[in-house]
From TrEMBL:
CDD domains in UniProt: Precorrin-6A-synthase (cd11643)
Cited PANTHER family: COBALT-PRECORRIN-2 C(20)-METHYLTRANSFERASE, PRECORRIN-6A SYNTHASE [DEACETYLATING]
Reactions mediated catalytically: precorrin-5 + S-adenosyl-L-methionine + H2O = precorrin-6A + acetate + S-adenosyl-L-homocysteine + 2 H(+)
GO MF term set: precorrin-6A synthase (deacetylating) activity
Protein name: Precorrin-6A synthase [deacetylating]
NCBIfam families: CobF (TIGR02434)
Biological source species: Acetobacter suratthaniensis
Keywords attached to this entry: Cobalamin biosynthesis, Methyltransferase, S-adenosyl-L-methionine, Transferase
Pfam families to which the protein is assigned, alphabetical: TP_methylase
Domain Tetrapyrrole methylase: 3-221
EC code: 2.1.1.152
InterPro entries: 4pyrrol_Mease (IPR000878), 4pyrrol_Methylase_sf (IPR035996), 4pyrrole_Mease_sub1 (IPR014777), 4pyrrole_Mease_sub2 (IPR014776), CobF (IPR012797)
Higher taxonomy: Bacteria, Pseudomonadati, Pseudomonadota, Alphaproteobacteria, Acetobacterales
Listed pathway(s): Cofactor biosynthesis; adenosylcobalamin biosynthesis
Amino acid sequence: MITLSLIGIGTGNPEHLTLAAIREINKADLILIPRKGKAKADLATLRETLCSDVLTNPDTKIASFDMPVRDAANADYQQGVEDWHDAIAAVWSRTIQAHLPQGGRVALLVWGDPALYDSTLRIAARLLPPEQIRSIPGIMSINALTAAHTIALNEIGAAFMVTTGRHLREKGWPDGVDTLIILLDGECSFSHIDPTDVQIYWGAYVGMPEQILLSGPLSDMADEIMQTRAQARKEHGWIMDIYLLRRPIVAHDKKAVS
């Protein structure tokens, strides 16, 4: 029988691993490492380095596989994602069968936490029933960002929202919240909103040696962040970034009253 553990590894910094994550890595018979092309070879290397830092079980195998690419040209976004997930599940299945034909414990290292804007749990459900899947929580990019900027995630007694760049662009700033956490934004969607009274706390490669942090009034920082982001992506071939947007509760209340 196959069991699959999805292990949250934070940003790939070994210091972000929990003891539960380290134990689960060392229980595995097979660890799967996705390859995402030459431009993102660093991501596979980071996972391999992390394993070398914490893996003490000499019998654990490590196997790489080529990650399928989503068809971004598909006009039906939802169907395109479903097809992509089917393709990933098929690759997982073939790789596991090749290396563990008799079954065993498989682990997949997941950036951040498997439960936050990540599809590994959905993909795993295509292969195995729930009782054969484990999810090991990891430090989320949200925690890493607020810690790096030494700010609180929420204002006193106030709500916050976690959403995507796509939603921010298409739907604007949601009513009723003054703090937004934006993930999965490849288009600098903060440039599509009114910057008045908005503070931005942006981070790329948060928690990694390459970490870049910028913050300040959105009206002052938008261009600098976009330029810095473009340069970092060019330099590394990939980028992982996240940002927090905050506007004063007073300003929001006045708008609501008017």
